Amino acid sequence: MSEAAETQSEIFAQMDQVPAAGSDVIAESPLSNFHWKTTGAEAGVTLSEQGLAGHLVLRSAGNSSFEAAVEKVLGMSLPGPLQSVSDDSGRVIRWTSPDEWLLTVSNSDAFSVEQQLRAEASGHYSIVNVSGGQTILMLSGDSAEMVLMKTCHYDTHESSFPVGKVVRTTFAKSGALIRRVGESEWELIIRRSFSDYLALWLQDAAGEYGLQII
User: Fold this and answer.
1) Domain ranges, residue 127
2) Residue 105 included in any domain
3) Is residue 150 part of a domain?
4) CA distances from 171 to 41, 68, 82, 100, 152 (A)
């Protein structure tokens, strides 16, 4: 289903990226066909893909109407620099630049959340659904940070990278948006086009510690 609308000077197109019920189209995550190689029973690193989430890029340069719409629809305020906020349903808003945030919701909610935000907001803002172009990897375990230390140059020590912090950085010659979820749990948001390459890299980097896929 697609929808086009024009309100005053605002023109936008919105498309539901979830296949309709009864459709022959089958949604597949970027790594759904990747053949992971696990190593041994003792796993110091655990990896899992959350590949079918809804990803919405939000942009607004100090638009109080848009900020209020986000708080009304999501029950969360837009976080400040390098921070993130989340709720009990699993929705997360991550700061990515001075006027940009990444919101993730369940895939089935992305279309309706965008509709609600557009209905409540006015003025200059942008909402772009990029769900099909990204995937989320969850990296955890006693040796998870060691894998990150081999893979990116950003300081991952808890004094520099506390729980809830978000950074976009070079990651294995590619890039990733990294959020610390817990003491030994990390979220990596990567582009679909680099997903196989980064999966191979992480598989190799975690090999010496033991890798489990869930």
Assistant:
1) 43-213
2) yes
3) yes
4) 28, 34, 17, 20, 5
3-state SS of 146-162?
Answer: HHHHHHCCCCCCCCCCC
* Residue 137 CB partners (closer than 8 Å, separation 6+): 31, 47, 48, 49, 50, 187, 188, 189, 190, 198, 199, 202
Q: What is the pLDDT of residues 79-93, one digit of tens each?
A: 999 999 999 999 999
What CATH number is associated with residue 102? Answer: 3.30.1360.120
The pTM score is: 0.89
pLDDT in tens, 53-80: 999 999 998 999 999 999 999 999 999 9
Give me the phi and psi of 105, to 5 degrees please: -135, 175
Residue 63, class by beta-carbon neighbours within 10 Å (0-12 exposed, 13-18 middle, 19+ buried)? middle
Please check whether residue 20 lies inside any domain of the structure.
no
Please state the domain count of the chain.
1
